[in-house]
Design brief:
The structure is a single chain. By secondary structure, the chain is α+β, with helices and mostly antiparallel strands. The protein has 2 helices and 10 strands; from the N terminus they run ααββββββββββ.
Length: 178
């Protein structure tokens, strides 16, 4: 009798473990499908705009036109949307990533970075962080004049960095979480 009860309780524990693992796997699959779905939607918008005859410049060219360093975003973006009437810029990335620049600064990007693009500045930023002892949300990036050799990042405090560190787009290294 005792052996039978031991077997029954071990079967219950085993089925609980299997059930827990199955829930984790379903959760992972759901996250993957959601990510894939949003990427497909973003690409579809990009193709639709191409078909409508709205050829987009490369993101580095757009940033250069607005007097911002062309390497402000990683090289491996999926696509971007820009509404020039409102200045609204949305940059899509395949996964959260971070980029180390030649001035030793590090910026982390979410899968979608939003902001308002104006001449010499990107403000109201969502989806970008920088490392200053701890990760801090970047709210604004500014270049004060066309001839300026500094880029100002506002992430709680205003910090200047050499503009030439951001002249070349670099590959983003995938990270687990933004």
């Amino acid at each position: 009798m005792e052996k039978a009860l031991t077997k029954v309780s071990s079967l219950k524990a085993g089925s609980f473990w299997i059930s827990k693992k199955a829930k984790e796997e379903f959760s992972n699959i759901t996250e993957d499908i959601t990510s894939l779905s949003s990427t497909v939607e973003e690409k579809a918008k990009w193709i639709f705009n191409k078909l409508k005859g709205k050829p987009l410049k490369s993101l580095p060219d757009l940033l250069r036109e607005y007097n911002l360093p062309p390497g402000l975003f990683p090289q491996n973006i999926t696509c971007y949307e820009f509404d020039d009437s409102k200045g609204k810029l949305i940059v899509y990335l395949p996964s959260p990533c971070e980029v180390s620049f030649k001035d030793s600064s590090v910026i982390r990007y979410g899968t979608r970075v939003k902001g308002i693009l104006l001449r010499g500045k990107l403000t109201g930023i969502e989806g970008m962080k920088t490392k200053v002892l701890v990760w801090v949300k970047v709210t604004s990036v500014t270049v004060e004049s066309y001839k300026s050799d500094k880029v100002w990042f506002i992430a709680g405090v205003k910090k200047s960095r050499a503009k030439d560190a951001y002249e070349m787009p670099r590959d983003g290294v995938r990270v687990q979480e933004f």
